[in-house]
Amino acid sequence: MRFALNVPNFGEYGDARLLAELAREAEGSGWDGFFLWDHIAWEGAERYADPWISLAAIAVATSSIRIGPMVTPLPRRRPWKVAHEAATLDRLSGGRLIFGAGLGGREREFGFFGEEPDAKRRAAMLDEGLEILTKMWSGEPFTYRGTHYGITEARLTPPPAQRPRIPVWIAGTWPRKKPFLRALRWDGYAPVGKAGSPITPRDVREMSDSASEQRGRDEPFDIRITGSTNGESPDEVRRKVAPFAEAGATWWDENLPPSGMSFGEARERVRLGPPDVG
């Protein structure tokens, strides 16, 4: 299991310089990843930092830690623009980008800005958008005709540093099957539980077994679990995190919440390093 930080892009975190400093400290403290939220209208929030510009600053400030948006609601972005941004960021970071994508779970971030409000239409837009990303990241010319997008004679050069492409993780609410089946077509799954139903090690075992059955046991597939170990004893941390690793989770994302923990407290948690589950 590898360990990352799950970081908001607003409030006290809404400053690209501070995020870059925090990521540099995370790398020095032994964390494996630094993943940034992508929100533009969180209830009650102020002081937003654009996640992609912040990730560029983070890429320059670090050298080995994996980075990425977790997750970008692709249906409220132009996929060809995202493809260029991601390819540039991947090259800037030396091939360290993981691209997290989803429908977008906060309706206000679509309705407030005149974007598509219907979740089913956004799901179709997500699938088309991901196909466009893949074609653009190939570096080869292509034409695309879908229900929601049309592209004529496009080509992206240079392509991303990672070949054949940047890893893609798909977010979704467990145990809904459609998001999970979408994730199985890509490289990883970033599940959240339904309200009041957190993800359990048993859930992860079911995800892992299904991935092995449908993709083959030799085909890599990441499962990212988000949680908090702040203020817990080493024994409590092991009891919480180890069962997820044993069930098949490959990443633990330590959540730095936008409320209930000051930026200073979050920084101290980062400096303590990742959970010890040995």
Automatic annotation (TrEMBL):
This is Luciferase. It comes from the Bacteria. Pfam families: Bac_luciferase. It comes from uncultured Rubrobacteraceae bacterium. Residues 14-245 form the Luciferase-like domain. Residues 197-278 are annotated as: Disordered. Gene3D superfamilies: Luciferase-like domain. One of its GO terms (biological process) is alkanesulfonate catabolic process. GO terms for molecular function: alkanesulfonate monooxygenase activity. PANTHER family: ALKANESULFONATE MONOOXYGENASE, ALKANESULFONATE MONOOXYGENASE-RELATED. Residues 202-222 have a biased composition (Basic and acidic residues). Transmembrane segments: none annotated. Keywords: Flavoprotein, FMN, Monooxygenase, Oxidoreductase. Coiled coil: none annotated.
